[in-house]
Amino acid sequence: xxxxxxxxxxxxxxxxxxxxxxxxxxxxxxxxxxxxxxxxxxxxxxxxxxxxxxxxxxxxxxxxxxxxxxxxxxxxxxxxxxxxxxxxxxxxxxxxxxxxxxxxxxxxxxxxxxxxxxxxxxxxxxxxxxxxxxxxxxxxxxxxxxxxxxxxxxxxxxxxxxxxxxxxxxxxxxxxxxxxxxxxxxxxxxxxxxxxxxxxxxxxxxxxxxxxxxxxxxxxxxxxxxxxxxxxxxxxxxxxxxxxxxxxxxxxxxxxxxxxxxxxxxxxxx
Amino acid sequence: xxxxxxxxxxxxxxxxxxxxxxxxxxxxxxxxxxxxxxxxxxxxxxxxxxxxxxxxxxxxxxxxxxxxxxxxxxxxxxxxxxxxxxxxxxxxxxxxxxxxxxxxxxxxxxxxxxxxxxxxxxxxxxxxxxxxxxxxxxxxxxxxxxxxxxxxxxxxxxxxxxxxxxxxxxxxxxxxxxx
Lengths: 270, 179
Known about the structure:
The complex is a heterodimer. Chain A has helices spanning 3-13, 19-31, 33-50, 67-82, 86-111, 135-147, 150-163, 170-184, 198-214, 218-234, 238-251, 256-269, and strands at 186-189, 193-196. Chain A is mainly alpha-helical. Chain A has a two-stranded antiparallel sheet. In chain A, helix 7 (150-163) packs antiparallel against helix 8, helix 8 (170-184) runs parallel beside helix 10 (218-234) and helix 11 (238-251) packs antiparallel against helix 12 (256-269). Chain B is mainly α. Chain B has two domains: 2-109, no CATH class; 127-179, Winged helix-like DNA-binding domain superfamily/Winged helix DNA-binding domain (Arc Repressor Mutant, subunit A). Chain B is built from eight helices and no strands. Chain B has helices spanning 2-5, 12-35, 41-56, 66-82, 94-125, 129-140, 145-152, 156-176. The model of chain B is unreliable at 4-9 (pLDDT under 50).
């Protein structure tokens, strides 16, 4: 008997042929002993597969049935029991929607940052007044930043810092690098859930720490601390953020009032 | 058992024995055939019950062999299922009639049926994993050849030829064991 006929007999036994094809094949089977025996065997296999106990196709109990197989079997039994597909469809749709809702809620509660509205970092133009060989990396970094390529800009700034760690402009470069790190650390999940790259934020905090300690001007030190506070908030570490802002308040500079206000806003978001 | 059943003439007891064997062996096949007309399981079972009960209620009808009975019921079931509408569905005591008719002989033939199934089960367990997977997909999962080939990542022609080979192998083994 040809292979195709055996395959057709199997399809017949599984009820996968349409009634016309099934009747034609049954006529053939009536005249063909081989096909008839194949149908008997297929019927036996269908019986084995349909047994509740001793089903050879089911995995051993100790290994467990995989969850999706269980679900499929459960839906099929439900379908068979009720004879209608739509209640199963409706129930499944409701269950899936509920699961999605719960999943989204979990995601928001686990990944959402409650300080999100305080974390806006404005883009700052890079302007340098550097002469000599140091100029090259900074110029290229400035050009890359103007193009919006923050990764490239950061790479050139870091190269500058490696080559000229003791440069007069190093604190400014550290500040810029820190700001770029914090700005590029933000991404979104599912286009609406904000998330922050922890590694990037930590790198930014390190650059800003350098700037806040070594910057010659008070303004730059304060601004670095403000940014560090935002960086800590990105990591949801509000105590460290408030400590940074407290140091701005303690310095008694012109931004003390702003820092106090920021602390209040952080406290209100807790 | 098959040879005994094919003896003629068939007195009442043998006639019942044939039907009992046919029913035990082919009821799932008939239900699947009824379902090929796109009716749900429960209604397919009703169709099969009605066809079988109708034949039982007609004692003058005789079949030459088990295969003859199988094919006759199969065709009747398909034809009945084609025109089956849900509104025609009626809860009849056919099931009770069929069950009570066969209950008498069930134990007598259960041993033979059980032995054949056990042999088939051990033959399936002896198959290679790939062959087992194909059978599992086809008979347990109810997938088509195309779906099986996609799921197992093998060409459809390979699946088809392997399936034919597996069935041939199983038949030979059952024949050797006298089933």
